[in-house]
Amino acid sequence: MTIDIMMPFYGDPQLFRDAVHSVIAQTDDDWRLVVIDDVYPDTEPGEWVSALGDPRIHYLRNETNLGVSGNFTKSVQLVTSEHFVLMGCDDLLEPGYIARMRAAIAAHPAGAYFQPAVTVIGDDGRETLPLADRVKGWYRPTHSAPAELSGEALAVSLLRGNWTYFPSICWRTEAVRRHGFDPDFDVVLDLNLQIDIVLDGGSLVLLPDHEFRYRRHAGSVSSWTAQDGTRFDEERAFFLTKAAVLRRHGWRRAARVASAHWSSRLNAATKLPSALAKRDGAGLRALLRHVFLGWRS
Description:
It is built from 14 helices and nine strands.
């Protein structure tokens, strides 16, 4: 049971090499890596990965830059296995990742997606735990053994605070293709997909094993959009739209949580001092709008 690892690339070439090496170092070699170069200006990283000569590694370069959701959609189209990972080009797999996912899939064949425990690292590769990740830890359910979560309870948990790490998730291909990635979203496209899957009856298998290293740095999409407030405009649109869907589905508790989206609004509040210090009027207005008017359409 091969697991496909899809890796859109546009970023630091050395971190990209480290990510590829972490795939090659897997204790279970039943994997296929597909690198999708999103027209990175320097062709050397692509030449490097092509020169590895590993038949399990495939490289292609887009004709034009597709951006986040475009690359995610293309990645899903290129998957040939029943399960896949959409890995960041600066993240790292622990050596046992593929083996652990294959065992979890065998034990939970109906699972729509599988979330291992994650170690957060900084640009230098050292473990770190900034506020965003401490909050994720508070929201993440605690289980000492693998647990299969589903239904409105899972939706409520995710909407209170998205404690998953999208690049670390192993997905059942059929579940993702049924819903796809909404091109209107960049920052919350993963949470949108998860809620769609859960509404459709899909389950998340939560694993206690630390099998992934997620790199947290200021260059990520979620970081830079948080500074000018556009992240929160997108989040507000997502939560209010999903609240209406959840109400129609009869999940009123989840709808209330989505409407309030307290963790998103509190996150915006933490950005206010920075916006004030920079005298960023537009960013400040966007943040205040989200903090105090976030529940309104």
